[in-house]
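Entry for the shared binder. Reason: the reviewer on the internal report wants the predicted structure included alongside the sequence.
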Amino acid sequence: MTIDSALIKSSFAAVEPRGSEITTYFYAHLFEHNPDVRKLFAEHRDEQQDRLRAALTTLVDKLDDTDTVVAVLQGLGRRHAGYGALPAHFPAVGASLPAALAHVAGDAWTPEAEASWTALYGVVTEVMGGALTEAATD
């Protein structure tokens, strides 16, 4: 699988105006399918939803700037170590993110978009997970 930057950007542009719907659906999906991760999150998720939306926007906006993307993901990984996140949590997020994007995009969500987002999430997992693991061992 390869990351199609243009497809990531166009598919995100189609759903970005409905950002709060993405994050609301994301957390509902995540907690429904992975109730054990609920304890890692504050009761009120407004701020967390805003952070998720901002992180997604930054990731997509800077997608062609590898150094910036890596730095952002490493920072997120280090911060998530402090929240108690584990590499084992990444597959749950990796299932809930495309589910949320697909839900909001509706018929505009294509198999190609899903494949590209899945490839992108593989990079997120690798970089963020590496920083999380490193921070947890320090």
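Summary line for the report: The chain is about 75% helix and 0% strand.
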